[in-house]
Specification:
Residues 41-60 are annotated as: Disordered. By secondary structure, the chain is mainly β. It contains three helices and 25 strands.
Length: 420
């Protein structure tokens, strides 16, 4: 799974489009009743609307910021998001091997000093009220992110506009993400930033260290004010609940509901290996991570629970074993939310499905392939069809479920065309 960090020039740049947050619209107030109205018929009771929201959906990859209008409570605000560079203020750092000779302070001594050079800069965040008056303007510098991302990568990075991911009215806070990477390469890290409405920095933290081998997760501000960083849960009161475990890697972390989330770990650790050929090649690259890492599985935990349903306070609600994750660049958990059964279905190609009830995520049902019926035409009138296509698989899977029986499915395995 671990891919090389090598990237040669602009051709190595991988940019993944992301969904953009849409501004909330104010609904018009209903017109008052006329004075001549004497009686009003009570509305008939309406059925509970179906829960159609897939809370688990993630948008992976590079995500650029854009100016945003939003509401915090009843107050309308506008964010102006910029990035600036000051080429009159050079910065120098010693690389740990991630940054190549293209950014050397002195190419003649780089092999021994490992010193790389960049320039000062950072995001500029301006908040305006509904009348266009400035509430605050916050300029951040590269040094502000040294504790959240690799210093050598921060030093040579080209400042990017932050992306606004939400606000929390009771806590008077705004949350952002920021991508930091080596220019002209596919080596990127992601940070999360939280500001108060006074413009002061409340929190800066790492989301993940590399877009390669990254988790199926995107940072988000949850409805109760908890910030999911992909490594931890930052509570509204400032308490930090780590999602990490010793000698393991988080491969997924995403919400199931407003108050619960799902995490998956793999147990083991990387062991670094270095070859002379890789060292020689590193001098020609923008990114020079020539330490080839091999993942070593912890065999003692091969069958231990690695998937967890948690509350946003970090309380464990359910644990089980799940090995269906995979991917080529990012990890991904192949899943589908079927709102007609209010269920998440997680695929493991070797075993089958795991069903999680969104109305009670602590309740799960294992659905092995051997207990499912093979699909035979025709599709039954009441059946809902959904497909799952693991990124690194040669097959797609089609499932057929009757909403009245969410744990009884039929399935078929479909060969995918070459190259897909």
């Amino acid at each position: 799974m671990r891919s090389s960090f090598f990237a040669l020039g602009i051709a190595g740049l991988i940019l993944t489009a992301c969904e953009q947050r849409q501004p909330t619209e104010r609904t018009a107030a209903p017109s008052p009743l006329a004075d001549t109205t004497l009686t009003v018929a009570l509305p008939t009771a309406q059925p509970t609307p179906p829960d159609t929201t897939d809370a688990s959906r993630t948008s992976l990859g590079y995500q650029a910021g854009r100016d945003t209008t939003f509401y915090l409570g009843k107050q309308r605000y506008r964010l102006l998001l910029r990035a600036e560079t000051d080429s009159t203020k050079p910065l120098v750092a010693v690389t740990d091997g991630s940054v190549g000779e293209a950014f050397a302070e002195d190419t003649s001594t780089f092999a021994t000093t490992r010193r790389v050079r960049g320039y000062e800069g950072g995001p500029v965040i301006t908040l305006l009220d509904s009348a266009g008056r400035r509430v605050f303007q916050r300029r951040l510098r590269k040094a502000d992110f040294y504790g959240a991302a690799s210093r050598d990568i921060v030093t040579v990075s080209k400042p990017e506009r932050p992306k606004f991911i939400g606000g929390y009215a009771p806590g008077k806070t705004l949350a952002f993400t920021l991508d930091i990477g080596i220019p002209y390469s596919d080596v990127w890290q992601k940070c999360v930033l939280m500001l108060g409405l006074d413009g002061r920095v409340r929190h800066i933290a790492s989301s993940y260290d590399s877009n390669w081998d990254g988790p199926d997760c995107e940072p988000r501000l949850l409805p109760d004010g908890t910030l999911l960083t992909c490594r931890a849960l930052l509570q509204p009161d400032g308490k930090l609940v780590s999602l990490q475990k010793p000698k393991s890697q988080i491969v997924a972390a995403f919400p199931l509901t407003d108050s619960t989330l799902f995490t998956v770990h793999r147990y083991g650790e990387y062991q670094q290996q270095t070859t002379n050929e890789e060292k020689a090649a590193a001098s020609q690259q923008e990114s020079a991570d020539f330490q080839d890492a091999k993942w070593i599985v912890d065999k003692r935990l091969r069958n231990a629970p690695n998937a967890f349903v948690l509350s946003t306070k970090g309380q464990l609600l359910k644990q089980f074993r799940y090995d269906g994750y995979g991917g080529t660049m990012f990890y991904q958990v192949p899943r589908r939310y079927v709102w007609q059964t209010h269920s998440y279905y997680l695929l493991d190609e070797k075993r089958g499905l795991t069903q999680l009830d969104k109305h009670n995520p602590a309740v799960l049902t294992e659905l092995p392939f051997r207990q499912m019926q093979r699909f035979r035409r025709p599709q039954r009138p009441a059946e809902i069809r959904f497909t799952l296509s693991p990124e690194a698989s040669s097959y797609s899977y089609a499932f057929y479920v009757n909403p009245t029986q969410p744990t009884k499915l039929r399935y078929e395995r479909i060969q995918r065309p070459a190259g897909m």
